[in-house]
Design a protein that fits this description.
By secondary structure, the protein is mostly helical. Helix 2 packs across helix 7, helix 5 packs parallel to helix 8 and helix 6 packs across helix 7. The model has no long low-confidence stretch (mean pLDDT 77).
């Protein structure tokens, strides 16, 4: 993303990227629930496969401008050396470690609810595939709201408090 927009717009670009990805997280399950109810699971998978193929073709058509310095650096940095350098960088920066832990904790502790959501939707709520799709959409809607909040308020005030509040709301 930074190669496409530059440093000045990176916070807004990442927030917009997150919003688009999370919109698909919220709209996708709702549409899948409707498709499953209308054309069965096989039809829903067929539609999903066609959408993934389209997205792959569109992504392959993107051309990111590459400077000669970037090309030279990419050739010089090997995979393992890059990983070591990345972990060393994280280890040397307390703020980055905290952000990564703050992002990892909700994923490890709260995200497993998605495995239980189909059982909950069937046994407790009796909502069927359409209702399950809407239940799966709810976190995506919250993530979109969070992404737009970061784009709007990302450079205002204490960002650490903002991120901690978001993690607490999630789980």
């Amino acid at each position: 993303i930074s190669d496409l927009v530059g440093d000045r717009l990176i916070v807004n670009a990442v927030a917009l990227n997150s919003a688009v990805l999370n919109m698909s997280r919220s709209v996708g399950p709702a549409i899948a629930g409707i498709l499953i109810a209308q054309v069965t699971v096989g039809g829903a998978y067929l539609v999903q496969g066609l959408l993934y193929a389209s997205a792959t073709l569109w992504t392959m058509q993107m051309r990111v401008p590459e400077t000669s310095d970037q090309a030279r650096q990419r050739r010089e940095v090997q995979l393992w050396a890059g990983l070591r350098e990345g972990f060393a960088f994280i280890g040397g920066h307390r703020e980055i470690k905290m952000v990564l832990l703050l992002a990892l904790a909700p994923l490890m502790l709260a995200q497993p609810y998605t495995s239980l959501l189909p059982v909950f939707a069937t046994d407790e709520l009796s909502v069927g595939s359409e209702g399950l799709g809407l239940l799966f959409s709810a976190p995506g809607i919250g993530a979109v709201i969070g992404a737009f909040s970061v784009a709007t308020f990302g450079r205002v005030g204490n960002r650490g408090t903002f991120m901690l509040a978001g993690a607490c709301v999630f789980g």
